[in-house]
Amino acid sequence: MRPFGRTGALVSELGFGCASFWGRSMFPEAQAIALVHQALELGISFFDTGASYGGGVAETRLGLALKGRDTSRLLIATKAGPEKISGKVVRDYSPDAIEASLARSRQRLGLETVPLFQLHGPEIAEMTDALFERLWQLRARGWYRWLGLNSFDQAPLDWAIASGRFDTVMLDYNVLRADRAALIGTAAGSGMAAIAGMPLAMGHIDRQAFKLRRPSDLWYLARGLAYPRHRADVVAGMRYGFLREVEGWSAAQAALTWVLANPEVSVAVVGTTRPEHLAELAMVPGRQLPEAVMARIAETQHRH
């Protein structure tokens, strides 16, 4: 367990991401719910989802998985901003849209109060004073407890950290994004909780995109090749092939351990549709990579 910024809460080092293929209707709901139950049994207390994932399917599934269970020690996080409407993703950060999205999220999740409510990928201009005024009203009503920002873009992250309006920041942090450590340090220094998204670098260090074993693998391959930055990561990940050769470790375990070696990271969120993969990653908290491996990672990062 680690401190969750200035909130006073503690969270498990490993969080479960209820998104991606897990939150799509083509992935069997029973399997999705079973993964959440497995995560709970493994001691995971942080679950991250969003209104846009699967057009609301992800939130609904997480709500079903938690129904009837004691959630008082869990930290459930969701997001608002983008929404999938008629198959298209629509961005709307107006106060009315954000309030309506949070209302739907509370219903889907079965929560009176959402512990962490995050703005999902906004531009600076979209984070208006009118929006924050509405957000403070919603918090006063008890609709959510803490406010966060989820972004992979530098400018909004810098703005959010400097603004003092957010309790948490979620950003991409992995061996391919070592430069994010500076942002994480700044956030932690101001009392914010830093949430590491994409800690496994989308599996690119283990060439997961090209291991086609099941329908979900085709979906992940398409996603990995759809954007220029992800295509570049496929190439960059090959430089870390040595992580597949560390005795006693899988490449995914090594990558996750590198992220958690940063004490200013509150929680690292991983997503998976395979029970054996989740069990493998749950063995990471408390472990340390050999110094020689950490040194080689640092050398590779410096060279490239």
Task: Describe this entry's structure for a reader.
With 304 residues, this protein is of the alpha/beta class. It is built from eleven helices and twelve strands. It has an eight-stranded parallel β-barrel, surrounded by five helices. Helix 2 links the parallel strand 4 and strand 5. Helix 2 (57-66) packs parallel to helix 3 (95-109) and helix 3 (95-109) packs parallel to helix 4 (129-140). The radius of gyration is 18 Å and the shape is globular. The model has no long low-confidence stretch (mean pLDDT 94).
Topology:
Blueprint: E1 2-3, E2 10-11, E3 14-17, H1 29-41, E4 46-48, H2 57-66, E5 75-80, E6 82-85, E7 88-91, H3 95-109, E8 114-120, H4 129-140, E9 144-150, H5 154-163, E10 168-172, H6 180-189, E11 193-197, H7 215-226, H8 228-237, H9 251-260, E12 267-270, H10 275-281, H11 291-303
